[in-house]
Amino acid sequence: MAVLEFFNYKIKIIKGFFGYFRTKRMRKLKNSELGRKSVDQFRISEKSPFVIVLDNIRSHSNVGSVFRTADAFLTECIYLCGITAVPPHREIQKTALGATESVAWRYFKETCDAVMELKSQGYLIIGIEQAEGATGLGDFVVKTGSKYALVFGHEVNGVSQEIINECDYVVEIPQFGTKHSFNIAVSTGIVLWELNRSRKCQ
């Protein structure tokens, strides 16, 4: 009897062991399971309260990456300004992967003109930059009912001082290493993720 109880005990342990790994095992989803929207579905979907302003971005690849990120976060529109390249362009398409078809965009020769138009439409202007009096990204509070235009600047020079002067807020991404700068496409992803997360937590 004792031997039988011992074997039953061992069987329970073994079953528990394999049951644990069955519950922990993860399966990569297929593309067909991701619930992707079509371009038409994207266009009629409710958008986030954020638009993006690109202030003289020189890299076509960065522009394409911003389009792709904007699509992921249901961004209403991207304002392409100054030397920023516009679709259609092969180098943009390489990183946008079709997002130029879903995300609306407009071009302005002068960034200031884009900012002034957005202000007239009730948008609050946020410069993503390192500046005196800047608010840390994690401390910025997204207000329900408000609309925001997020301005990202040139890869070397950042957001121009002229545009900083027009901003309602300046938000800085905290950094802890030696470089204290992110690629503009990376910055866009970080900021959109955090602001959308903050908005949904309210």
Feature tags:
202 residues, alpha/beta, Alpha/beta knot, seven-stranded parallel beta sheet, 17% strand
Structure write-up:
This protein is of the alpha/beta class. It has a single domain (57-201), classed as SPOUT methyltransferase, trefoil knot domain (Alpha/beta knot, 3-Layer(aba) Sandwich), CATH 3.40.1280.10. The protein is 42% helix and 17% strand. It has eight helices and seven strands, in the order H-H-E-H-E-H-H-E-H-E-E-E-H-E-H. It has helices at 2-24, 39-44, 60-72, 90-96, 99-102, 111-120, 161-164, 184-201; strands spanning 50-55, 77-81, 104-108, 123-128, 135-136, 147-153, 169-172. A seven-stranded parallel β-sheet has the order 3-2-1-6-4-7-5, with helices on both faces. Helix 3 packs parallel to helix 8 (184-201). The longest helix has 23 residues, at 2-24.
